[in-house]
Amino acid sequence: MAHIHGTSSDFPLRRFLYPFAIAGAFVAGGWGLAAALAWLLDYAAQTATVLAHASGPIGVGGLTLKLFSSKR
Fold it and tell me: Do residues 66 and 57 touch, judged by C-beta distance below 8 A?
């Protein structure tokens, strides 16, 4: 049986595959950006904590500011 263009009764899957593939890539990229931002903020917070504990109090012009002071 010859296939004549335009008379096929099968469902055109390709018409729906491309939008779902693009949407899936967009969602995966969004999750990747959110994960990268969370990692970057966590790394920055840990770095700030380590630097603050290592340097001790910060003094400028006779005023001393102690960051992340312990309650002991």
Answer: yes
